[in-house]
Amino acid sequence: MTDLLNYLHDVFIVKLDAWVLLGGIAQAFFTMRFVVQWIASERARASVVPVAFWFFSIGGGVLLLIYALHRRDPVFIVGQAFGLVVYLRNLYFIMINGREASVPA
């Protein structure tokens, strides 16, 4: 039990810095995108992807890319950079086709 407590203290207290806070905020953006998608789907009683999903995806993706660049993690960098292309492309389609493109037919 002491080893677990020491581990948790090291991870969540000792290692806490501005970069970890940025990573946490970025992760909160990603969590919010699923929360807004879930709420929209529950209200519609169907699977719905609201525009806010893509904005939270972009916000979280940009912040996580910055975090990954700082951490110098090539797998994380490539994954976030690719994700940003997808999120921006989806938002572009919504903008040129109108908001109705973001909800089911």
UniProtKB/TrEMBL annotation:
<feature type="transmembrane region" description="Helical">
    <location>
        <begin position="75"/>
        <end position="92"/>
    </location>
</feature>
<feature type="domain" description="Lipid A biosynthesis N-terminal">
    <location>
        <begin position="22"/>
        <end position="93"/>
    </location>
</feature>
<dbReference type="GO" id="GO:0016020">
    <property type="term" value="C:membrane"/>
</dbReference>
<feature type="transmembrane region" description="Helical">
    <location>
        <begin position="48"/>
        <end position="69"/>
    </location>
</feature>
<feature type="transmembrane region" description="Helical">
    <location>
        <begin position="12"/>
        <end position="36"/>
    </location>
</feature>
<dbReference type="InterPro" id="IPR014546">
    <property type="entry name" value="UCP028440_lipidA_biosyn"/>
</dbReference>
<keyword id="KW-1133">Transmembrane helix</keyword>
<dbReference type="GO" id="GO:0009245">
    <property type="term" value="P:lipid A biosynthetic process"/>
</dbReference>
<dbReference type="Pfam" id="PF07578">
    <property type="entry name" value="LAB_N"/>
</dbReference>
<keyword id="KW-0472">Membrane</keyword>
<dbReference type="GO" id="GO:0008915">
    <property type="term" value="F:lipid-A-disaccharide synthase activity"/>
</dbReference>
<dbReference type="InterPro" id="IPR011499">
    <property type="entry name" value="Lipid_A_biosynth_N"/>
</dbReference>
<keyword id="KW-0812">Transmembrane</keyword>
<protein>
    <recommendedName>
        <fullName>Lipid A biosynthesis N-terminal domain-containing protein</fullName>
    </recommendedName>
</protein>
